[in-house]
Amino acid sequence: MDIWCANVEDVLLGLKSGADGLSSAEARRRLAAFGENRVQEHRREPLAWRFGREFTHFFAIVLWVAAALAIVADQFDPGQGMAPLAVAIVGVIFVNGCFSFWQAYRAERAIAALTALLPQRANVWRDGAVLSLLATQLVPGDVVLLEAGDNVPADCRLIEALGLRVNNATVTGESRPASRVADAVEASGAIEARNLLLAGTSVVAGRGRAVVFAIGMRTEFGRIAHLTQHTEERPSPLTIEIARLSRLISVAATVLGVIVFLLGRAIGVPFWESALFAVGIIVANVPEGLLPTVTLSLAMATQRMARRKALVRHLQAVEALGATTVICTDKTGTLTENRMRVVSLLVAGAACDPVPPTDHMPSPSPPMADLLRVAAGCHGLRADPAAQGGWAGDPMEVALAECAARWGVRELGERLAELPFETGRNRMSVAVQTADGPVLLCKGAPELIVQRCVAQRGADGETLALDAVAIRAGLDAMARRGLRVIALASRALAPGETVADDNAERDLILEGLAGIEDPPRADVREAVARCHEAGIRVIMVTGDHPATAIAIGREVGLTGEATRVLRGENIARMTTAQLALALESPHLICARVSAEHKLRVVQALQARGEIVAVTGDGVNDAPALRAADIGIAMGKSGTDVAKEAADMVLLDDHFATIVNAVEEGRAVFENLRKFLTYILTSNIPEIVPYLAFVLFRVPLPLTIIQILAVDLGTDMLPALALGAEAPRPGIMSQPPRARRERLVDGALVARAYLFLGVLEAAAALTIYFGVLGTGGWHWGEPLGGLDPLYRQATTACLATIVVMQVANLFLCRDPRRPVWPLGLAANPLLLWGLGFELVLIAAIVYLPVGNQLFGTAPLPAEVWLQMLPLVLLMIVIEESRKAWVRRRIARRAEITGG
């Protein structure tokens, strides 16, 4: 038999316990048998293994192979710069691996946070006395004492309850406190049973005694934790795309290197010389700075997002946000303020503003004063200066007390007696002593309070006959707004009259109705509209009642005329195909959902090809947060469990912050494309010199160490500057990119390799041969590596590539818009990147240490001047291409009518 179906005596008998709990000896025996009351940590990958993995992914392996080939080449043909090249490549692998590991390690939260919701200590009956024990020492059969403000330490069955109400939001998602009883009940499961208290929930009102029946991983809390730990995380779109890009570039570089080697051998180049140039081709093709630049760019994006109140725990989540097609959002605290508030009053048959004028504090009218004294005095709150309004307890009661306090009305006097709120009664009464004598204050569900009233308060404070029609009209008007309606009533008690049971709640005078809501946040409606404009569906997934969810959805713009509501029980019964079809509804709300229901919704959306972002704050949200493409936890109201499972934490718990983060994520994807175009462009002027050397037997225009100067030196900071570009105007007015859309597509490759890269290569070789010709070199004449003319010519080739990349830095800021309207104020890092690039190339060209390290020689001023026409020509050609693209897009828009 389920424990909630049995009476108290049978429950205690089944657990071999009693109303006064266990003996210390029996508790020790059970502790040895059942273990401690704690959530077991999921077995984690060793730290050293995670660190080592940063150096063994595909891209790193390619670099390791290139470094090994360089070492081998240096052994057989020393003095060609292969040893410094190998050291530089290993340095790149090490620095990038350490940085990536540090970013992940710094953001990672220990899984021990799963135990943070459980209280440190609990009041337990042992040996017939109440002791304060560590919660980890609880065992099945222990009897614990609980009162308002306590967290529940384990799954317990109530054996005594007085006005007990609990907040189950962390487990069920239900925002309203639920009453609890000690009697046997019928329920479909532990979560629905009204006589159970679940680990991780909290008591908001009343007090009681309960016997522990499940601890640790056997609790509902532990079950959800287990589900969270074993929910597989999907790799982010960026992770998949970078892996694909790494394979593509690495394979292409290797194939091209092998072709160059075979061509060299075919035309008679010595074996090791051919191998040397094959390694050079591989190094020129593999952008060694790609991974450090991507990592740093994402890290910079996380800093920008942190300034917008979004804390990113996993770097790849930044870009995943930009691809989001569906946001499954919680209601309480995300769409709403998570603060109950009285927003409507019905007093003497008329609607009244619950907020007094701001310019002065008027005295409330007589009927308003009578209503407010019930709101101020009929509650089970306790004073807490740190809590909302100075009270701790039921949020609905806090809202009523705050409403009264705004008018200057507080508790009337000494409390004489109390009839607590209980399920079935759905009301609460308090007897207080006033200057005019004892008074009974009563509040509760309107249908129960009104039937116990014999009159209602009139406009001048007099008593009038009940106007059932007006009361019903007022109640319906509030219900249509999705408000929680509370009726407030009172009556004068006779001298010496006792308040001991329900009979005292008779002959009441109805003081009025109060409409309470958890109001939507101020700019959520605008944020939801931005999502719709951006082609992102927003689905509310909440544990709350459907009527409440629909009302909030209507206020924030989530619901339409044909809104479909999926309850948790519907989701559980549906097949996968049925659920997929149901999720196609344009206006959809999922209400009364459990952890499994929410997880199933997320997985069904992903199966449809959606990129899903999920918000949550409770333990019950953690499995869905982990399974989602981007899990978003609440920073203020969220549990540590939810934060541990999430990729991003909202510091302000605000839905609008998610929309800002999506905007940043879209900008990250575009910025990645910008700096990939920039980085890949320089590959062509690095490759072409090797092809010219092998095919035309000219002196090698660019050495391998000079290639490294571009890839790991001059290109790094400018590429980072492109990664820090602000979101462009209109980025949120376009639909999310398709899942199949590549980071590096044919258009990007064509622009970088076949257009900009070709222009740079042509310019570099033009200057190179110009310097050789000016120095008296003739075609076919050999030049040694230490020849001053050769050094100056290779320096000119290197400098030309860098100068062309300076222009390319601005050309790559946008693939369509012209370069001149794009100001620098929004991205000062561009100027730093430009300055760094020019200072570094000047140091390489003119400082002795630069000459020695990179095999360069100082250049005369006229060589720099010869580069300027080529730079201008590249700008004119690229801007002409952009103008042609813009005209094509405009023409297509005219043809399609939009």
UniProtKB/TrEMBL annotation:
SUPFAM superfamilies: Calcium ATPase, transduction domain A, Calcium ATPase, transmembrane domain M, HAD-like, Metal cation-transporting ATPase, ATP-binding domain N. InterPro entries: ATPase_P-typ_cation-transptr_C (IPR006068), ATPase_P-typ_cation-transptr_N (IPR004014), ATPase_P-typ_cyto_dom_N (IPR023299), ATPase_P-typ_P_site (IPR018303), ATPase_P-typ_TM_dom_sf (IPR023298), ATPase_P-typ_transduc_dom_A_sf (IPR008250), ATPase_P-type_domA (IPR059000), Cation_transp_ATPase_P-type (IPR050510). It is a multi-pass membrane protein. Gene3D superfamilies: Calcium-transporting ATPase, cytoplasmic domain N (3.40.1110.10), Calcium-transporting ATPase, cytoplasmic transduction domain A (2.70.150.10), Calcium-transporting ATPase, transmembrane domain (1.20.1110.10), HAD superfamily/HAD-like (3.40.50.1000). It holds the Pfam family Cation_ATPase. Keywords: ATP-binding, Cell membrane, Membrane, Nucleotide-binding, Translocase, Transmembrane, Transmembrane helix. The chain crosses the membrane at residues 55-73, 85-105, 248-268, 274-299, 743-769, 789-812, 824-847, 859-877. Residues 2-75 form the Cation-transporting P-type ATPase N-terminal domain. It comes from the Bacteria. It is found in: Cell membrane. Belongs to the cation transport ATPase (P-type) (TC 3.A.3) family. Type IIA subfamily. This is HAD-IC family P-type ATPase. It comes from Aromatoleum diolicum.
